[in-house]
Design goal:
Length: about 220
């Protein structure tokens, strides 16, 4: 039992610096300019897009926001459109009723408390309805250039499966990723990991034969060639 416990603790230490650096080096070479696949115009529209993306794919969100942002790409226009108006555009997205309510509520707060501009700090972002820690991390990273790492289902899977940052909750994975990820790679880490999980390290059948970090990955049940 003691040996198993020690092994479990060791596994949660994540990759050593040199190994983590090599992993990110390869992912960076594969995708030199990683960025979110959500379509947005400015910080406000990104806040809305990321809030809508909870339990939805980026593709479905982009389809919904294409017309929405043509009509309402500012907090004032969004409030004027109203909850019913927003709902008409996002009915194809999961939880659309609650999300429409949140979009109007966060737009009002941005107008009333932030002069119509999306907040710049994590505290203010997370205070917006429908905006949690992950959403704030995406916005801070994507438009403000902060070295945040947002842990979604893809990042969580890749971190655990590879052994890069194996932990039991998104919060713990985030903390461990920030520890093991070299500073030079922190800015792009979220994007490299999410894109790797979305297109290579798939949930049901990872594309191990084509994986650029296959030899670094500690996953025991790799998909055979």
């Amino acid at each position: 039992m003691a040996t198993a416990k020690k092994k479990k603790i060791a596994q949660r230490q994540g990759f050593p610096p040199e190994k983590a650096a090599e992993l990110y080096k390869r992912l960076a070479k594969q995708r030199p300019n990683p960025k979110t696949e959500l379509v947005y115009k400015d910080p406000f529209t990104l806040v809305v897009a990321v809030a809508l993306s909870a339990q939805a794919t980026d593709v479905s969100v982009n389809k919904a926001t294409k017309e929405l942002f043509e009509i309402a790409d500012t907090p004032a226009k969004m409030v004027a459109l109203g909850e019913a108006g927003v709902a008409r555009h996002i009915r194809t997205i999961g939880l659309w009723r609650n999300k429409a309510k949140n979009v109007i509520a966060l737009s009002r707060i941005i107008l009333e408390k932030h002069g119509g501009k999306a907040p710049r700090t994590r505290e203010d972002l997370e205070a917006l309805p429908g905006v949690g820690h992950k959403t704030a991390s995406v916005v801070l990273n994507e438009v403000y250039g902060e070295a945040t790492i947002a842990v979604d289902t893809h990042v969580f899977r890749v971190s655990n499966r590879t052994g890069l940052a194996p932990e039991t909750t998104p919060e713990k994975v985030e903390r461990l990723l920030l520890e093991v990820t070299p500073d030079k790679y922190k800015r792009g880490a979220h994007h490299w990991l999410i894109l790797h999980g979305r297109y290579t390290c798939l949930a049901r059948k990872p594309a191990c034969p084509e994986c650029v970090i296959r030899d670094l990955c500690e996953y025991e049940d790799k998909t055979p060639a």
